[in-house]
Amino acid sequence: MAIARQVITSLQHDGTDMLGTKVLAVKIADESIVSGSLLTVESNHFCVLKSRGAVLNVYETGQYALTTPDKPLLGSIAQGFFGGSSPWVFEVIYINRSKLLVRSEGVATSEEMAEMAYQVDYYIHVDSKEAALELITHLPFNGHFIETREVAEYAGPAIEQSINQIVQVTKMEDINEHINDVRELVKNHLTEFLKTYGITLNDLKILIMPKDERMRELISLQAMGLTPMEAVRYYLALKMAEKGLVSAPNAAAGVPFNIGGPATGFFPVGAETGLNGGK
């Protein structure tokens, strides 16, 4: 906590911001924060002031002297719970208003029940003082921080449901043809979901691919114009070539490989000169 001479700020002693690029909100509760303390709010932050559970004020950029208003914005101030005093009187919450990157990952199933891995990258931000209140009201703190990974955990089921709505009725090889439909559906559902927490959704990108690496390679070969059987043969030939097997071209062509004697199809390099036993 960056508290010195009763000045409260989100900047730490080394000048770094405790919110950074991964923290959406941070809570500072300390008995050193008293009426008259100076509250500093950076240009990329909102600040919510609470006292004994009641929201007293929401601040934008600037420096303010802490005072207790006659009426809180939200809730009521409980008196006498600690016999007239409490371990801390004021609670300061800084909210990051910068655009933050969030990533959600998961697995969906295609029409053939093939596992498809998806990755959704999206930017979020808190747009207004009202939105800052929505955030701290509906999204709970895990300790003193609300991190972007927690937003991803909350939004995960909504994203998964939206993606499966299209992917489950689409053949694996046709999914990328519907990627724009998937993106729009996810964007609409996610926008409404995050709105409850006072979070605005900005840009969104979706990547969907077979979870199995072998299937990804086979689909890539088919995308080059090969038939399914040709794709299997070329995949086998590539794996054989990686092992240094001279019969890889024969596997690609689908013809037998012969050492010595009459042969049909492809010959390994040097066969006609007898280097590999050819006659």
Question: How many DSSP-defined strands?
Answer: 12
Given as residue ranges, the uncertain stretches (5+ residues, pLDDT < 50) are: 1-5, 80-87, 263-279
CATH topology group of the largest domain: Tetrahydropterin Synthase, Chain A
Q: What's the CATH H-level superfamily name of the largest domain? A: Band 7 domain
Question: What fraction strand?
Answer: 25-35%
**CATH class categorisation of the largest domain:** Alpha Beta
Spell the H/E element sequence. EEEEEEEEEEHEHHEHHH
| CA-CA gap between termini | 84 Å
Q: Label the CATH architecture of the largest domain.
A: 2-Layer Sandwich
User: What Rg, in angstroms, do the CA atoms define?
Assistant: 30 Å
Mean pLDDT: 82
Helical content class:
25-40%
Order the strands across the largest sheet as they lie in space: 6-5-8-3-11
Identify the overall geometry. Answer: elongated
Count of helical regions: 6
Major sheet attributes = 5 strands, antiparallel
